[in-house]
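User: Hi! I'm working on a homework problem where we have to compare a predicted structure to a textbook description. Could you give me the structure for the chain below?
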Amino acid sequence: MAEQEHATAPDTEGPGPIPQAGRLGRWIDRGGLVFAAGIVLAMLILIQEVILRYVFNAPTIWAHETTIFLCGIAFVYGGLYCTARDRHIRVVLIYDALSPRWRRRFNVAISVISGAAAAMFAWAAWTMVERAIFMPDGSFRLERSGSAWDPVYPGLSKLFLFLVLAVMAVQFAVLAVNYLKDKK
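Assistant: Happy to help. Predicted structure tokens:
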């Protein structure tokens, strides 16, 4: 009963992105289901690998790299997901003591600084992506793992990291603008 009362308290936010995240935040939030499914798929692959290896003595060459890839991109996406839901870490000792007007100002400053950091990290990630997806002559080639299976996961992971950081920079810009507009 106490949990039910807490869930309907007027000062708790509902599930999903915060309103200031805008349409982009809603899109990011829906995308979270895809990456949550990826974690479940990774678990199923590992269960299959254990059965194949220890029951049938027939291990695969692809299971470990695939689960690492699936979990890795889910964790990278998690940063973007937390941004849209305003679930990032902040020093609440200071933040909670502020008036709503000063919180709004802090939210704008935090969004601008975090957006600038995400943009710089995206630029740095692009330098990795250039080497991971293009040959020196400019032709397209995804970096491979070099293992027996040799998937293109390293190239895809670097490209995904770049894309997530670029979208994160845009999401922080949307948040900054919407916090400025919010007069609460």
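For your comparison, note the following. Residues 122 and 165 are 5 Å apart (CA to CA). The first helix runs from residue 2 to 7. Good luck with the assignment!
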